[in-house]
Amino acid sequence: MWNYEKRLQYPIKITTPNAKIAQFILSQYGGPDGEINASLRYLSQRFAMPNRKAMGVLTDIGTEELAHLEMVSTIVHQLTADLTMEEIESSGFGNYYIDHTNGVWAMAAGGIPQNACEFQSKGDPITDLFEDLAAEQKARSTYDNILRVVKDMPEIADPIRFLRAREIVHFQRFGETLRTVQEDLDCRNFYAFNPSFDMPSFCSCETDDDGGKKEICEKN
Fold first, then answer.
1. What is the pLDDT of residues 35-83, one digit of tens each?
2. DSSP string, 62-102
3. What does pTM read for this prediction?
4. What value does the CA radius of gyration of the chain take, rounded to a whole number of Å?
5. What span, in angstroms and rounded, lies between the C-alpha atoms of 32 and 107?
6. pLDDT tens-digit profile of 103-123?
7. Are the C-beta atoms of residues 187 and 208 closer than 8 Å to each other?
């Protein structure tokens, strides 16, 4: 399914370790809006998509989130490499160090472990795509917050800006995908799985001379 090119999507070379900043960056590894949950969300939701184009978009973006996961973990690894015990203790990194040494472990900046309950795979393409749009905006907001903290650290800020830009592109692609899914629905059925009790009238759609759709309804 995948071809793995053994290089980062964006180069990362951090020369100055900083355990405090690493704890902030960890949130985009295993936090509620992080890259693990993003990848699992999209690669799970793709099976419910009603057409191959929509399924392909979720596969593409879910795969790219794995590349972003690799980038974030690389940043964390380089920020925590070669730390002295004094640096670990003074930066507040001690609790993490006791449990994980300098390993990369999925957690939010607040210390909460990664949790699959923080994303949803509902099986309704409209519902799932709206969640995906919100997820990309939340991830972009988190990167905004990180950039405010690391704005004077170009070695960290540059790859974070790249990741933020990709979240914006993903948001746009999910918006396009949502429109393609909705275009396949009829005039009354705004939702992909519209229950019968939401249809008080018998309605059908016809295409007019201009290629548009018009609604024909009869009372039950």
1. 999 999 999 999 999 999 999 999 999 999 999 999 999 999 999 998 9
2. HHHHHHHHHHHHHHHHHHHTT--HHHHHHTT-HHHHHHHTT
3. 0.84
4. 22
5. 9
6. 999 999 888 999 888 899 999
7. no
